[in-house]
Amino acid sequence: MLRAGIVGLPNVGKSTLFNAITRTRKAEAANYPFCTIDPNIGTVVVPDPRLEPLRRIAKTTVVIPAAIEFVDIAGLVKGASAGEGLGNKFLTHVREVDAIVQVVRCFDDEDVHHVSGTIDPVRDIDIINTELILADMETVTKRRDRVAKEVKRGDKTAAAEDAVLAKVETGLNAGKPALSVSLTAEERAIAKQFFLLTDKPTIFACNVKESDLATADANPYVVKVRDYVQTHLACEAVVISAQIESDLVDLTPEESDAFLKELGVEESGIGSLIRATYRLLGLQTYFTAGEKEVRAWTIHIGDSAPQAAGVIHSDFERGFIKAETVAYDDLLQCGSIAAAREKGLYRMEGKEYVVADGDVMLFKFNV
To answer: Which residues, 6+ apart, have CB-to-CB distance to 138 below 8 Å?
Structure first.
């Protein structure tokens, strides 16, 4: 299962957000730096409104949604790349996740201490990104030193690797994350082998006060963050209120809806954040639907039918014959598999078929 790491400066709401996302109280949330030391890990359900209509069509009571893991990582401070705070431990934990959710404080509150003394979300983003870039620069330098001998000997693989390292190094020296360095698909594949911190896809979570959630688009801190990350980092920013989400943990769905309506918002920011993180990881969903259960399966965008089948069981991929497939929208409009088949919307697809998000599938295989 792929993991997204929740990072940020101390006291920006990371642990509160983690507890809200995972619907637990696993992570200690306190008004002092480094209340999180060892990372907390939680499995999170990906909200998907398509599951309930599929359940009704399949006439089943069992629904199993898709899931990803979130990791609450200790707060980072300036100098982490040189070992300040929990620097080395923090960077190790970031290296182990597949994507980063960077929480940025976008509210004023004298009762909640900020490690820098003032509120400036763009400065906070720069602090974290600078530490990640410095750590990557050290990694790149060591790697180039390691392959230098092979390059001199005329090793083509080492030369290709060094050429990519040189491009990445130039970008890092200019303050750019590795992910934003212009590389070909082949070069990007080589860069993945370096496990660079700034090569991980990143999304920013703007943490606002409860009273600001309904008008967050006008929040000057949120506006600054969105403009900065889109312009400089080509990343997405979503708005959440970690405290509100934490308050919702103990409420029923009906109570949560009523509470959010009182605040003037229709949906919890957590749902948007989870879905955005799912997309950030390059993931999509296909479904299986029958009387036994309706289930959402997680695959990478661009996966073929046999690869999708392999998520259920390796035997399905190894012995793949064909996939019976219908698009979710077509099935919903028809109301049943039988009706979709009559209209010619229920198809047989082979090994070359690239699965689309929302496909409802049944695999035929022989081992």
So the answer is: 81
Can you say how many angstroms the Cα of residue 132 is from the centroid of all Cα atoms in its chain?
18
CA distances to 27, 53, 98 from 1, rounded to whole Å, are 21, 26, 10
- Tokens matching residue 218: 């006008």
Which residue type does 52 have? E
- Cβ–Cβ < 8 Å for 229, 204: yes
Q: Which two tokens stand for residue 223?
A: 């506006």
User: With contact defined as beta carbons under 8 Å apart, do 294 and 52 qualify?
Assistant: no
Q: Please choose, from the candidates 352, 354, 361, the residue with its C-alpha nearest in 3D space to the C-alpha of residue 296.
A: 361
Quote the CA–CA distance of 77 and 163 in Å, as a whole number.
Answer: 32
Token couple for 207? 């943490």
Residue range 285-317, pLDDT digits in tens: 999 999 999 999 999 999 999 999 999 999 999
CA distance 297 to 209: 35
Six-digit token pair at 120?
A: 């400036």
Q: Under 8 Å CB-to-CB from 181, ≥6 apart: which residues? A: 167, 168, 170, 171, 191
DSSP letter, residue 24: S
Crossing angle of helices 121-152/220-228, nearest 10°?
20
Strand partners, 360: 287, 326
What pTM value is reported for the model?
0.79
| Contact (CB, 8 A) for 283 and 298 | yes
H or E segment to which residue 284 belongs: strand 283-289
pLDDT over 70 for what percent of the chain?
91
Q: Which amino acid is at 130?
A: T
